[in-house]
Amino acid sequence: MALDRRELLTCFLGAPAAMLLAGCGGGTRDPGPIPGELVGAGHELGHRLRDLRSIPRPAEDRWQTVEVAIVGGGVAGLSAARRLSRGKLDDYVLLELEEQPGGTARSGPSYPWGAHYLPAPMSHQQDIIELLEEMELLEGRDDAGHPLVAEQHLCRDPHERLFYRGRWTEGLYLYDGATAEDRRQLELFEQLVAQWVDWRDGQGRRAFQLPMAEASDDASVRDLDKLSLGDWLRQHQLDSPRLKWLVNYSCLDDYGLTADQTSAWAGLFYFCARVRQAGEESQPFITWPEGNGRLVRQLARGATGKIETSRAVVNIAAQDDGGDGSDGERRLEVIALDQDGKAWGYRARRVIFAAPQFLTRHVIQDWREKPPEHVAAFEYGSWMVANLHLSERPMSHGFPLCWDNVIYDSPALGYVVSTHQSDVEYGPTVLTYYYPLAGDSPREVRDRLLGTGQPEWAEIAVSDLQRAHVDFRQQVERVDVMRWGHAMVRARTGFLFGGDRERAAQPYRDIYFAHSDLSGLPLFEEAFYRGNGAADAVLRSLGRDA
């Protein structure tokens, strides 16, 4: 059912915001369409394929024989491809549903469509360090062995600001007007986090580490997964509204979940894993105008096999009779459809499944009738990302424009400025606006996301930001919208150490799994780790050096 403007804003921004904005454009009157388009049609193709009644058979001239087929061209799939190439295996094909690889790390020419930064790695993250060295981003190491990132690639000042009651203030904690009790609770929270930062188990492992597979498996740490971060705050009698807002924002930012939905382990991981030791700042952010699209391009350059986009895999089946019969060895048959509906076939000795786990029950033939129980444990959150093209930098009152700009009472996460890394402080820019849908039912919020089109999402984004900027609507030239229906795995309470992730990571009939959802954390570092690990396992299974 179509909503008028006030109903739309009430639904997505809340009643107070809708009332405040009622006068802008005449209340229910639509102030006019905002130019732009929906970007990425993968979910529409994916839904059509999910509902296929039968699997089409490719014509004989549309079959290829390869050593390895990689399903999914996000960070995990590209990392696996690069790793195979580094292992001297180039006879592979990577199949990606979208028109360009990258998944939620893909980008436009000078702005992100999802992930937009990478924390500087610590000394133990050798694979990440090697990748950054390839990109010529490092300037050596410090005395402790930690890499030194070239300054031009680190997020420049000012980093972040918060809009509250008509004014922008520095940072993301609302110090203005904070009571003595607010400040006491913030200090206590920071002390508790510092204790976990310095915590080590009997083997010297940290409680929270990147990648998470290298973190401690001590029961006292893993038991944090049994309660939500909201419960953890209540256990420590931390109920300051300002602290709760900061913690809730942090969970939404990394996981698309509220603090009451997020595993306490995942929530504390956010605050601890990127801090070397108590008393230090978190690792600085590496960022570019196009966000993690820069990293995607580097991974793709290192992948010397075939990358075929707009190919949606619809079936993976084991052929016990040798598949094509050419070498008498068992092969896997992978069938994909292109955007024109043509079927293409690939006979591979191994498959790396680098797509989300929920797709396995639709794609792996053996699992279509009765998928393993662990598949149902994986839930995925929905996000809307909009890129707003402006004719001029937005005007604001208080602290100046930053890289990250957040509105205190908005359900969205605010925006990052694509031109922030430049030295130019005026002229056109692109703002990337993030809106996570954090409802309790993934299916309902996904329907809500996909049932809302570009005109409505553009109006939501512009109206939300109009509260913080004078004449903002007049500066907007176009708003393009990306709807991520399965944006990231939900690190909800009880999921991380319930056993389902471990079961999902086990190979099945020469199919090896690689995706950040196997870690339960939707992070570049985890996707990179899982892609590399799956490729190494495949290389070893084929008798090659990993």
- Helicity level: 25-40%
Tell me the major beta sheet: 8 strands, mixed
Secondary structure class reads alpha/beta
Shape: globular
Q: Strands across the major sheet, in which order?
A: 1-18-14-17-16-15-7-8
> Uncertain segments of ≥5 residues (pLDDT<50)?
321-326
Q: Based on the structure given, which CATH architecture of the largest domain is correct?
A: 3-Layer(bba) Sandwich
CATH class of the largest domain: Alpha Beta
- Structural domain tally: 3
Which fold does the CATH topology of the largest domain refer to? Answer: FAD/NAD(P)-binding domain
Report on the structure:
The protein has 546 residues and is an alpha/beta fold. The chain has 18 helices and 19 strands. Strand 2, helix 4 (75-86) and strand 3 (92-95) form a beta-alpha-beta unit. It is globular and about 70 Å long. Residues 321-326 have low confidence and may be disordered.
Which labels suit this protein?
single chain, about 550 residues, alpha/beta, Polyamine Oxidase, Chain A, domain 2, 3 domains, 8-stranded mixed beta sheet, 7-stranded mixed beta sheet, about 30% helix
